[in-house]
Amino acid sequence: MISKNGIVSVYGFLLGLSVLFVWLLLQNNVFLGTYVDRTVVNPLHLFIVYTAISNVLVRVVNRGITYKVCAQALFLGLVMAAGLLISIQAPASWKPFGWYMCVMAIFHYSEFLSIAVCNPKTLTSSSFMLNHSVAYGVAATTSWLEYLLWHYFLRDMKTIHAISYCGLVLCAFGEALRKGAIWTARDNFTHLVQQEKTQTHTLVTHGVYSWFRHPSYVGWFYWSIGTQIVMINPVCVVAYALASWKFFKDRIYYEEITLLNFFGEDYISYQEKVGIGLPFIRGFVVTRDKE
């Protein structure tokens, strides 16, 4: 059952996404009447005004953590709407960036919503993963700058949409795998590596966990690379692959130590049957004593 803040996030996300509905109404002169040319409706101006009004509304209605949740959900709804508008209205060279915005909005909002349903007791305003780390923010900013540079110096490259489509498929695979991991593990899934085993903490080995020992990391790894393929950012494709690989190599090694402490022989048996799923990463492997 979805938590209260999960419901609040739905309202916030839909409020942000609703700018598309307002834009469609204005395009059809529903508000302006038949005497005003619909071409005067600038999507950017509409977006700015709608963003300001909706943020004021969210601030007035909500307080405390509810406000933080609703504001972030509103932001992601607006990002999704902006991505769709760019995909529809912008020239061909900008469409990959619009698709990227949609992919980012879906990933971060579904991350929060999945936790709100599967493990609400761990839900916080940080569950959107928007403030994941400084490195994550730097990586995102770098990818935007690369897009702008290529767009300026080699604009035609951004119109090779077949490459972006391949990226979208990879993002969809990574997204489905990560969310599959959350929904399979449910209250065993947390965003932070657990230091102590709780009474309800069990070893999950079915579903996507029968494919990979760390399906959420495998999904995130390929999703992150996919985002750069969507934007046709050749430098960041390589940089993201290397940086993500290093991050998950260290994270998995540390996490498997705690899992071995929690589940002992059961986890060793699980390691022997199921691989990690990321290239050249073995995790923390315990060698059995030979009799």
UniProtKB/TrEMBL annotation:
What does the record give under GO molecular function?
protein C-terminal S-isoprenylcysteine carboxyl O-methyltransferase activity
Coiled-coil stretches are: none
One GO-annotated biological process of the protein: methylation
Q: What is its main location?
A: endoplasmic reticulum
Keywords, alphabetical:
Endoplasmic reticulum, Membrane, Methyltransferase, S-adenosyl-L-methionine, Transferase, Transmembrane, Transmembrane helix
Give the matching PROSITE patterns: SAM_ICMT
EC number assigned by the record: 2.1.1.100
Could you state one GO cellular component term attached to this entry? endoplasmic reticulum membrane
Q: Name one Pfam family in it.
A: ICMT
Intracellular or extracellular location(s): Endoplasmic reticulum membrane; Membrane
Q: How does it sit in the membrane?
A: Multi-pass membrane protein
The reaction(s) annotated as catalysed by this protein in its Swiss-Prot or TrEMBL entry are:
[protein]-C-terminal S-[(2E,6E)-farnesyl]-L-cysteine + S-adenosyl-L-methionine = [protein]-C-terminal S-[(2E,6E)-farnesyl]-L-cysteine methyl ester + S-adenosyl-L-homocysteine
Q: Which domain of life is it from?
A: Eukaryota
Q: Where are the transmembrane segments?
A: 7-24, 44-61, 73-92, 98-118, 130-150, 220-243
- Family, similarity comment: Belongs to the class VI-like SAM-binding methyltransferase superfamily. Isoprenylcysteine carboxyl methyltransferase family.
Sum up the protein's function in the record's words. Answer: Catalyzes the post-translational methylation of isoprenylated C-terminal cysteine residues.
Q: What is this protein called?
A: Protein-S-isoprenylcysteine O-methyltransferase
Q: Which organism is it from?
A: Aphis gossypii
